[in-house]
Amino acid sequence: MTKYVFVTGGVLSSVGKGIVTASIGKLLQARGYSVTAVKIDPYLNVDAGTMNPYMHGEVFVTDDGGETDLDLGHYERFLHINLSKYNNITTGQIYLKVIERERKGEYLGRCVQIIPHITDEIKSRIRFVAKRENVDVVVVEIGGTVGDIEGLPFLEAIRQMRIEEGYCNTLFVHVALVPILEVTGEQKTKPVQHSVQELRRIGIQPDIIVARCRVMLEDEAKRKIALYGNVPIGSVFTSYTVDTIYEVPLILEKQGLGKHVIERLNLEDKEPDLADLEWFVEKIRHSKKRIIIGMVGKYTKLKDSYISINEALVHAGAHLGVKPVLKWVEATNIEEGKVKVEDALSGVNGVIVLPGFGRRGSEGKITAIKYARENNIPLLGICFGMQLMVIEYARNVVGLRNANSTELNPKTPHPVVDLMEEQTKIKQLGGTMRLGAYPIDLVKGTIAHSLYGKDRIYERHRHRYEVNPKYIHKIFAYGLKISGLSYDGRVEFIELSRKEHVFYIGTQAHPEFRSRPLSPSPPYLGFLKATLNSI
Ligand code: GLN
Predict the structure, then answer these.
(1) What was the pLDDT predicted at 161?
(2) Centroid of ligand 1 to alpha carbon of 465 (angstroms)
(3) pLDDT for res 396
(4) Would residue 271 show up in a list of annotated catalytic residues for this protein?
(5) Which of 400, 403, 353, 404 is nearest to 377 (CA)?
(6) Which DSSP string do the residues of 189-254 spell out, in sequence order?
């Protein structure tokens, strides 16, 4: 029988609830239990795909093509598993389903209500994941903050699940912020007290409270949280600030959280094996040599916009014993002449041209690509980044003046990047890109092939445009090579040979989504290695 751990959040968002959720999963997994994780997002969007990464953070893509919340990325990286689109439940999905059913008359004349119809649909989706993945424990994170109107039906659903699944099969964990007053240095527990009260008001008594605080909670603060939160003092833990997020499971384990969860769920305790994380955290700690990476993009103010790329660099860096330091380069500033490209990229050891959409900033990115190509600076182009590498090459080496992508200029004389054939018939925006993992055949003898060491790989995708098949023979006759193709002939990897450039690789895929602490993504590893060699 599957057990459920429900994680709620209090006081503020962005207190690391996703990391605590992933950490609890990890502590169970370390004891030999099979685990999966679900993220619930109480917004009305059906998925994260239609949301602006500048406001909401990265859209994480699953193997099966789900456009999901970035927390799924944390779960995958901590738990070393591949999740599915079913692991991200949104209010939009729930209402869509219930209303569709109502239109079909499936409710047999009854009045359709939030309780029980919406809550039933929520519960059935959570249980569906448990059944589909057949795991020992499902860790379910309820997004947002307790007290939000949007979150109420989800909290009601998990309250009902406690009754239906039983006390020993369900666990409520509440993660909330404990601020420290600057003047007195005092740890203030009142916000936590209030958020727990809010939870209890709707019938949920947390079993465990995890305080998010800059430092370890003092005994006095712990005592207060226990007293007012109505839990034993041994059920209060601290998620304090650490150098790397991968340390969080280790500090929680040290405080006894793993054992506590196990006992409460009536599972047999086993010696946890966290050697992989311990090794990885040690590696990060000893990676002192700084490598400066110019991150050329458009949403550079919100670092979460490219979180999987940041993490892929952390993974690759730890393996090489280097510390990637990110220098965010706003492409629009180059484009508008506010900064010169040589100043924007001064001192960088390598450049990543980030994924993206739309015209704004694209010429700035192309300028940065030209600069990196001509000055032999290691360059990795991801998705849109690769498309812009092709455009730059077509313009400046092949001599196709004003070459462009039809996404950026529909009237370009040379549409070297164009909408994919099957996309021309699509009218709806949500969930209609080329999404998820597709096989890529790597060309023997290329750098891409040597990085992966395989003929066929699988990487995830999220795009509507591609290198225009009609231009392939024109562009790839001047040195730039195709090093990876899909089975239906799409350009998936491009590169310049080592003789021409120290490292110049672009991919239509998003290899960062499959990067894990212990198995870093090959293109990111290769890229960082090249930056090291070129210092
Ligand atoms: N805008 C480009 C496309 O749709 C690239 C998308 C991306 O970088 N994820 O093809």
Answers:
(1) 98
(2) 6
(3) 97
(4) no
(5) 353
(6) -HHHHHHHHHHHHTT---SEEEEEESSPPPHHHHHHHHHHHTS-GGGEEEEE--SSGGGHHHHHHH
* Portions of the chain given CATH number 3.40.50.880: 287-534
- Ligand 1 binding pocket includes 384 (Cβ within 6 Å): yes
- Ligand 1 centre to CA of 256 (Å) is 45
Q: Which of 384, 405, 417 to mutate to test the pocket of ligand 1 (most atoms within 8 A of CB)?
A: 384
pTM: 0.95
Region of 227 (left: φ > 0; alpha: ψ -120 to 50; beta: rest) is: alpha
| CB distance 330 to ligand 1 below 6 Å | no
From-to residues of CATH 3.40.50.300 in the chain = 3-279
522: which DSSP letter? Answer: H
Tell me, what amino acid is at 230?
A: N
Which segments of the chain have a pLDDT < 70? Answer: 299-301, 535
Q: Is the CB of 53 under 6 A from ligand 1?
A: no
512 as an active site residue: the answer is: yes
Three-state DSSP state, 165: helix
Does 78 contact ligand 1 (Cβ within 6 A)? Answer: no
Pocket probe mutation, ligand 1, options 360, 389, 407, max atoms within 8 Å of Cβ: 407
Structure tokens at 401: 């003046």
Instruction: Name 41's bridge partners.
Output: 90
The per-residue b/e assignment along 252-268, b for 16 or more CB within 10 angstroms, e otherwise, is bbebebbebbbebbebe
Quick one: pLDDT at residue 55? 78
Q: How many CB atoms lie within 10 A of CB 142?
A: 24
- Can you give the pLDDT at residue 300? 66
* Chain centre to alpha carbon of residue 473: 36
Residues with Cβ < 8 Å from 238, sequence gap 6 or more? 210, 211, 212, 213, 215, 216, 217, 251, 255
The partner residues of 342 in beta bridges, in order of sequence, read none
Amino acid 41: pLDDT = 95
- In CATH terms, is domain 287-534 a member of 3.40.50.880? yes
H/E run at residue 103: helix 91-103
Neighbours of 271 (CB within 10 A): 7
- DSSP assignments along 387-436, one per residue: HHHHHHHIIIII--TTEEETTT-TT-SEEEEEE-GGGGG----TT-SEEE
User: What Rg value do the Cα atoms of the chain yield, rounded?
Assistant: 25
Report whether CATH 1.10.10.10 matches the domain 3-279: no
